Amino acid sequence: MAAHRITVTLPPELAEELDRAATNRSRFVAEAIRRELERRRREALRESLDSPHPETAELAGTGWSEWASAVAEGDEGLLDAREGKPVRWSPGKGWVKGK
Asked: d(Cα 54, Cα 3) in Å, to the nearest integer?
């Protein structure tokens, strides 16, 4: 994959510290960006799990049997309850094995 050239402006003291720490500026900056993007993705996922959308939380509270029983008439063949694994929503933990 072809690299894209970008320009980044840094304060002089940070640029000097970078030059002391790394022999390859581009590689160092690319690795730092990858780590930060992954950290932000994990943080967003954590926030999403801690504060689920109200409709998602409502569905989670409904449970499998209630949800499956609400399937439209004639669509019963779309679900095979024997293939599912029991799970339940646990506030603060997310989806956990159900009983």
From this structure: 42
